[in-house]
Amino acid sequence: PRAGEGNRMKLHFRSLVSIALSAALLLGCVGCGGAPKAATTITVWTYYSGDQLTSFNELVDEFNSTVGQEKHIVVKSSSQGSVTDLETNVLAAAKGEVGAAALPNIYSGYADMAYDLDQLGEVVDLAPYLTDKEKAAYVDGFLKEGDLMNNGELKVFPVAKSTELFYLNATDWAPFAAATGVTYDDLATVEGVTEAAHKYYDWTDAQTDIPNDGKAFFGRDALANYLFCGAQELGVTIFDAENGVMTLNLDKDVMRKLWDNYYVPFLKGWFGASGRFRSDDVKTGNLLSYVGSSSSSTFFPKQVLTSDTESHDIEMAVLPCPSFSGCAPVAAQQGAGMIVTKGTDAQIEASVEFLKWFTQPENNIAFSVSSGYLPVTHAAASLDAIRSSGLELSDSITTVLDLSLNAVENDGLYTTHAFPKGSTARNQLQSAMEDAAEADRATVEERIAAGQTPEDAEAEFLTDDYFDQWYETTRTTLEAFAG
Questions:
Q1: Where are the alpha helices (DSSP H) in 3-110?
Q2: Whole-structure pTM value
Q3: Engineered SS bond to 380: which of 16, 167, 273, 375, CB 3.0-4.6 Å?
Q4: Is 144 buried (19+), middle (13-18) or exposed (0-12) by CB count in 10 A?
Q5: What is the per-residue pLDDT across 321-364, written as a single tens digit (0 to 9) for each?
Q6: Largest CA distance in the chain
Q7: What is the separation, in whole angstroms, between the first and last Cα of the chain?
Q8: What is d(CA 394, CA 169) in angstroms, rounded to the nearest whole number?
Q9: For residues 200 and 177, what is the distance between their CA atoms, to the nearest angstrom?
Q10: Considering Cα of 143, then 145, then 146, then 152, what sign does the dihedral take?
């Protein structure tokens, strides 16, 4: 079987056995004249897709046919699309908007999403439902993320975490590396990636007789993570939020460093972004590498499409997320937790029962191995524990989990804290640099096509005055979210 398929087969077999046993028990109970107890049904909305969604749904089925059957709980799961789609649908449901579905009992969400719903009085504090011993089983930083107001509450239950890694098309990297002497070690720093991207653009440009047709080397799935974690490495917390109040620290020198290592190489065509995700850009040959979530490893393509009819196989290499030279690495702590919404006592208790079951080491590891997410308990969050689970581990998923666990253990972990409209502020910050880079690169390409040299086409965008203008506009925009 393909990597990961054996795990799905094992999960499916476990589910079938559990269903058969549960059916036998239920028939036995009814045969004795006892009326079956009415089940409590809870709904779960996620943003999972692909292998992640398959793995999650298989575990939901297993819960329903085992613990759920025993305790008369039925979990119904559905994916709402992207994180943005999910957030939109949850808020529409909470506000009772026309055409909106009923609010789910549980949904995947980040602290900002939980904060917005909590302000509407719809989020349950799960801290009273866990004993001190149960809380101690979870990685402390993961629990702290769910304590929105630093008061001991738990509004976001950790179920699966991720960080960021560097993904590379190792097959097409090889001839470039051989020709230029660039190595994997050069990709350990942000500055090294920028320089490698410059060399790759020049190298690919030289492969043809057409001038200025070099290819982009690198992209980022979540530019906001680069901005937040990069600023942390450089000594600044951009959104310094405490107890729901945000203080803005948009240090100009730090922002210039971030600008010079994303906007500038993007403007010059060394970096790129065209598909919905950067793994899409690798598949079409528009990028050779990207930084993305550890959970995105399952989406890395196995082939590059060189034309509508031609493709070639590629191998994936996975490396640590690059950090700024001379700085201690700061890793993004991400991966949505589960937020339980207000309901009946039975619904809340059933929701907690499911979440505790899902994060038991055996079940949490099964989800991790299939999805690239990290387990959230001390007992499960180690490569030894994952290996001893007996589940099939591909070489790539082993590398992903090993690098991710190493980052969690040894790097500084960073996640933004909640404040009003925090997700909107995050999107505004990301869009400010992302939109400027894409729009200005498009202008440069038009000018080059019209006969200008790259130097002339880029000149107005590379001045101090241009950066200053961008910085002041961005700072004014973000100050609106500060307390």
A1: 5-31, 50-65, 67-71, 83-94
A2: 0.85
A3: 375
A4: middle
A5: 999 999 999 999 988 899 999 999 999 999 999 999 999 999 99
A6: 87
A7: 54
A8: 17
A9: 9
A10: positive
